[in-house]
């Protein structure tokens, strides 16, 4: 049986299925943009990337991830961090 952190991560990944990357047309989860989700004190921290550095949809995606988690009631405070290490590649997409 998954622990609380595992259940929370699963729930977050489920609600983020609704956040669609406008460039590729798939969810941020399915195309591999979400790297990690963890509770940090009172905040939920999401580590994610975009398909390219300088992606014009980066702020849209960050805002959408944050808002979707808040709207689902899974956290009262959400921090989204963008990283490009490792850089995204199509190999990260779910098959």
UniProtKB/TrEMBL annotation:
Membrane-crossing residue ranges in chain numbering: none
Family annotation (InterPro entries): Fe-S_Maturation_MIP18, FSCA_dom_sf, MIP18-like
SUPFAM superfamilies per the UniProt record, alphabetical: Fe-S cluster assembly (FSCA) domain-like
Position of the signal peptide: none
Domain of life: Bacteria
Pfam families (alphabetical): FeS_assembly_P
MIP18 family-like domain residues: 11-81
Name listed for the protein in its UniProt record: Metal-sulfur cluster assembly factor
Organism of derivation: Rhizobium setariae
